[in-house]
Each structure stands twice: as C-alpha cells, then as structure tokens.
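[agent] plan:
  1. take the single chain provided in the ticket
  2. run structure prediction with default settings
  3. attach structure tokens to the ticket
  4. add a short note for the reviewer (M.T.)
[agent] executing step 1
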Amino acid sequence: MRTSSVVFTAPGTASPPEEYIADREKLQQRLAASLRAAMATLVGNIENADLVLVSADGKKIPAHECILRARAPGFYQRHVEATISVMERQRIESGPREVAIGDIDSAGLEFFIHSVYTEDEIAMFPSTNEGAEEERRQFLK
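[agent] step 2 finished; step 3 output follows
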C-alpha cells in the first residue's frame, strides 16, 4: 500500500506556512519524547526480556533480542548472534537466555543498552568529528 503526503500551502506560495512547519516539528519532538519514555521502561525490565547480558564483571542486564538486532546490529552480530545460534541448536530455552559479554564492564554495558533503547546519552555528546559519528553509526548498524 502506497501512502502519499499532502502539504497545504498558502495561495501563491511554493512552501508550507511557517506555522505548519513549527507545528510539525513540535509534534515530531513530542512523539520522539514519548517513544524514548516508552523504550526507557524496557531498560532493566526482566519481566519482558528474552536475553540477559552478563558483563565482564558478572552483572546481569536484561535486554531484548529484537531491539538489539534492530537498533545495534553490529553489537548483536559481534556479541549475541553466535551464542543464540548455539542455544537454538542445543534447544536450550527456559526463560531469558544468558549471553556473556566478556569485554564490557557493567557500567559500560548499562550505558550502551540505555543509549540503544533511548538515544538519550548519545544525544548528549557533541560530535567532535565526522569520523567518530560515522563510526558510531556503523557500530549501531
């Protein structure tokens, strides 16, 4: 199904009215904030988690496979995918599956998970150079 967007413009102008643009930006900001708040409720929530990431220092952090796969595919492929495939072959499935993340301590892993789910921390850091921003995008992809 194909959707199209219709933009109403004032007679004799080629661009949408300023108030339309401002209202649209406010709506986008409210939706983004609402989505971040909803995603933040999933951080650390073992009730709905299907993974438990075990940090280098042994702390267990609940996570969601579908979110990691979609929002941080580089991390998922590097740290989670192999363990999950072995568990599926061995048919180990009783509760959330534990995945050892041996090279990241609990503080770093918690920070990363919260960032992946909400983008709050990532947005707080200024981009010092384009290379670092591109590297961050590649890791999340």
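[agent] step 4 note for reviewer: The first strand starts at residue 51 and ends at 54.
[agent] ticket updated
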